[in-house]
Amino acid sequence: MNKTSQLRVNGQRLWDSIMAIGEIGPGQHGGSCRLALTDEDREGRDLFIQWCEQIGCSIRVDDMGNIFARRDGRNNELAPIVAGSHLDTQPHGGKFDGIYGVLAALEAIRTLHENDVTTEAPLEVVVWTNEEGSRFAPAMIASGVYAGLFEKDYAWARSDSDGNTLGDELKRIGYMGDLVCGDNPIGALLEAHIEQGPILEADQHQIGVVVGGQGQRWYDVIIKGQDSHAGSTPMPGRRDALVASAEIISMVQTLALEFSPYAVGTVGEMSVMPNSRNTIPGEVFFSVDIRNPDEDTLAEMALRFRSQVDSIVAKHAVGSVVDEIWEKPPVKFDRDCIAAVADATVALGYSHQEMVSGAGHDACQVCLVAPTSMIFVPCAGGLSHNEQESAEAEDLEAGCNVLLHAMLKLAG
Ligand code: GLV
Ligand code: MN
Ligand code: MN
Fold it and tell me: Is the N-terminal amide bond of 261 cis, ω within 30° of 0?
């Protein structure tokens, strides 16, 4: 056994770092609220950069706010082997979603630093901006710009519910960098993440070797009825936008169940106008998220969704605008990167299985322009996008060891 094959990360340091970032934008119930490009996001980014600089990494930030912390290799002409994820969270976010992937990459580099190991290719830790898509839709927007899937002007112009644009917020928090997003090559990208689903826990496997991600489509839906008095408008003549919306929500649920076991469908965001208890709602906005690992099935779900919206709105004498704001086809990861993860897992002796990601990840964007794969570790009850999200320190450490050795394999 050579020296590098014996390297192991420091699980306690990884855990402590995750907990320290988790304290920034603390949630009410043990999680975090660090929405993209808020002051809390800036504070998390600043701490991450400080840690990277402590181990001699150089920092570059691109004009989508993506951060690349670089550790030079022996041959710096080579494209870097990059690992990371995101630091932004959902409004009721956990401490691990995204954060784990960033800090696992940092821990891998800390381990190399303290053991004085230099790789052939340079290594970089990446923090992608606005992965969650909770404040600015769609999700994974900055990795999407990196991969050429979104125009930068489109991304900068995305606005939150208060009308603040992503571009202005990047400038406000000081993370509109000089590097042109997409100009820096990535030799390969690895992303470690909690699974966010129940499969690894149920199968009692410590590592998920992720071979791809499912497709998803996001819609903004507006249902237009008529405001009218709640006491004096007879039931038959009403044009109640909320009643029609309720039927659509239930239809989304039925649609996903019809395409089970792999399809999912969610309405997660809604606003009701004028939102007054004694006025029949005249207008409702809501989001729809449908997903499936198979592209043709997802397309069929999308067709069925639209035609069923049409019949529901006709029945309720209301109007509708259904705007598909995002279409993400399913992706397959790179064979060599998958092998690097699988080989490292086997060499380290961890139990594992191959899987497709149900959640979206920046890796699912970047894989279109660079060889990519992911490493999953279990999370308790499969729960994520919930402040109670939790994972075992031992599993996080195992995933980080896999990441370290997959990075070493790819970087030489
Ligand atoms: C990202 O968290 C997503 O899968 O929606
Ligand atoms: Mn995530
Ligand atoms: Mn998430």
Answer: yes
Instruction: For residue range 315-370, list pLDDT tens digits in order.
Output: 999 999 999 999 999 999 999 999 999 999 999 999 999 999 999 999 999 999 99
Q: Please choose from 385, 386, 389 the residue to mutate so as to test ligand 1's pocket, defined by most ligand atoms within 8 A of CB.
A: 385
Q: How far apart are CA 354 and CA 356, in angstroms?
A: 7
Res 2: pLDDT: 61
* Closest alpha carbon to 44 in 167, 131, 140: 131
Reported pTM: 0.94
Q: For residue 196, how far is its CA from the centre of ligand 3 (angstroms)?
A: 8
Q: What are the CA-CA distances from residue 334 to residues 168, 370, 374 (Å)?
A: 35, 9, 10
Alpha carbons 135 and 24: distance in angstroms, whole number: 17
Ion ligand 2 nearby residues (CB, 5 A): 97-98
- The residues, any chain, with a CB within 8 Å of residue 104's CB and separated by 6 or more, are 9, 14, 83, 192, 396, 399, 400, 403
pLDDT, tens digit, 9 for 90 and up, residues 87-99: 999 999 999 999 9
Report every protein residue that has its C-beta within 5 angstroms of ion ligand 3.
97
Ligand 1 pocket, residue 80 CB under 6 Å: no
Query: Contact 80/70 with Cβ under 8 angstroms?
Result: yes
The whole-number pLDDT of residue 3 equals 83
Q: Which residues are CB-contacts of 180 (< 8 A; sequence separation ≥ 6)?
A: 62, 63
**Helical H segments across 23-80, by residue range:** 39-54
Q: 362 CA to middle of ligand 2, Å?
A: 8
Could you tell me the domains of the chain?
A: 3-214+330-411 (3.40.630.10), 215-328 (3.30.70.360)
What secondary structure does DSSP assign to 66-121, as a single string? -EEEEE--S-TTSPPEEEEEE----TTB-SSTTHHHHHHHHHHHHHHHHTT---SS
pLDDT in tens, 222-261: 999 999 999 999 999 999 999 999 999 999 999 999 998 8
Q: Summarize pLDDT for 2-31 with one digit per residue, the tens.
A: 689 999 999 999 999 999 999 999 999 999
Q: In 3-state terms, what secondary structure has residue 283?
A: strand
C-beta neighbour count of 351 within 10 angstroms: 12
Q: How many CB atoms lie within 10 A of CB 206?
A: 22
